[in-house]
TrEMBL record:
It holds the Pfam family RVT_1. Residues 133-408 form the Reverse transcriptase domain. This is Reverse transcriptase domain-containing protein. Signal peptide: none annotated. InterPro entries: DNA/RNA_pol_sf (IPR043502), RT_dom (IPR000477). The lineage of its organism: Eukaryota, Metazoa, Chordata, Craniata, Vertebrata. It comes from Astyanax mexicanus.
Length: 423
């Protein structure tokens, strides 16, 4: 048995299949049953809608009359470079997209997705026609614009009776994500060829992961310490980041990047007219419309969010900080001489400009949950930093911080992480 699994692990090159095999061996316990609570599907749906509306309404005073002149819509332009139309798919290309995707069945699917993949060769002409009709017309099908949301407790220890302890998990039809993958392949290819993607963004890019987001930051902090420098690591926290993206600003950014005509029309259709229903303990809420945000649980949503926030890096670099992102998780770090007394002012100034950038982009920076970790040059060094931004003080007295699932301590020993994993 050991030899069998050793050979199996050695032959697996797909990380998803590798972890699935590990999971089958570890035999994890089944997920806990839904908590007993008096909450209803409609209550949860109204809360999710209200939370996004409350954040978006804060920006009515700073909304500019024209996104083309607003600083929120600034991005590198690409003169003479454009993606104005999609290339139609062949039946073989559609079949490859359909059969190589993970079969995630959504309650909105008419049949299970694994069954759809099994019978795909027989119905691939119709599916190819549907996808190509969308690509050539610049219209995303209305039937694919509704999401099925399941609320999950953020942490098992939280009170299940409190509505704000839940996060929405969005499920989309399998065919809609197949169409998105067709668009993703062509758009990401265009962006890569023209060097329009943020090189410090590891989220949802081929060959990247949380590891490629963590490693360069950790190595930079260790190198600085070996050179006798102290460092500060700041982990930004955003509230409902994907849900508050302004559609007008996003479309303007896409246009400035060279996406035009039929392709831009497709994205406008893709973003607008969306809705969701919450499924909760056998109940189904009414449909709630979405006027902002990129679709959670989608294939294109993460790429669009990365495009939307790409100019944040310019703000960070202007203050001498380095950064690395994974989707909406941003790590800022700066190394400095232990005798440097200007660090507090530099951190405050950088965070102030980041906060302003966030407001211009209709995103909410949650400073109360933003973490600041100081890594001293030597264990004996003590740094007394005073950080104040937007009438809030940012504490640096914590000894460790959770960064992309890893417990990073102020000595870079990772003993807290090892202890938490070994429990």
């Amino acid at each position: 048995k050991a030899e069998f699994y050793h050979n199996k692990f050695s032959s697996l090159t797909d990380s998803r299949k590798l972890f699935a095999t590990f999971k089958s061996l570890l035999n994890p316990p089944p997920p806990p049953p839904p908590p007993a609570t008096c909450l209803t599907a409609e209550t949860l749906a109204s809360f999710f809608t209200g939370k996004v509306a409350a954040i978006s309404n804060q920006f009515t005073d700073v909304t500019c009359s024209s996104p083309t002149t607003c600083s929120a819509a600034r991005c590198p332009s690409t003169e003479g470079v454009a993606l104005s139309s999609f290339t139609s798919l062949t039946e073989n290309e559609t079949l490859a997209l359909l059969t190589r995707s993970r079969p995630t069945t959504c309650p909105l699917d008419p049949i299970p997705s694994n069954l759809l993949q099994t019978i795909a060769p027989a119905i691939i002409p119709a599916i190819t026609h549907t996808i190509n009709a969308s690509l050539t017309s610049g219209v995303f099908p209305t039937a694919f614009k509704q999401a099925h949301v399941t609320p999950l407790l953020k942490k098992p220890s939280l009170n299940p009776a409190q509505v704000d302890n839940y996060r929405p998990v969005s499920l989309l039809p399998f065919l809609s994500k197949t169409l998105e993958r067709a668009v993703l392949n062509q758009v990401s290819g265009f962006l890569s060829q023209n060097d329009l993607l943020d090189q410090n963004q590891s989220g949802f890019q081929k060959g990247h992961s949380t590891e490629t987001a963590l490693l360069p930051v950790t190595e930079a902090l260790k190198t600085a310490r070996a050179a006798g420098q102290s460092s500060v690591l700041i982990l930004l926290d955003l509230s409902a980041a994907f849900d508050t993206v302004n559609h007008d600003f996003l479309l303007t950014i896409l246009s400035n990047m060279g996406i035009s005509d039929n392709v831009l029309s497709w994205f406008r259709s893709y973003l607008t007219g969306r809705s969701f229903k919450v499924s909760w303990q056998g109940q189904l809420s009414s449909a709630h419309s979405l006027s902002t945000g990129v679709p959670q649980g989608s294939v294109l949503g993460p790429l669009l969010f990365s495009i939307y926030t790409a100019s944040l890096g310019q703000v960070i670099h202007s203050h001498g900080f380095s950064y690395h992102c994974f989707a909406d998780d941003t790590q800022l770090y700066l190394s400095f001489s232990p005798e440097d007394n200007s660090i507090s002012a530099r951190i405050s100034s950088c965070l102030s400009d980041i906060s302003s950038w966030m407001k211009e982009h209709h995103l909410q920076l949650n400073l109360s949950k933003t973490e600041l970790l100081v890594i001293p040059a030597k264990p004996s060094f003590q740094h007394n930093l005073s950080i104040s931004i937007d009438s809030l003080s940012l504490s640096h007295r914590q000894r460790f911080a959770r960064n992309l699932g890893v417990m990073v301590d102020d000595q870079l020993s990772f003993m807290h992480h090892v202890a938490s994993v070994a429990r």
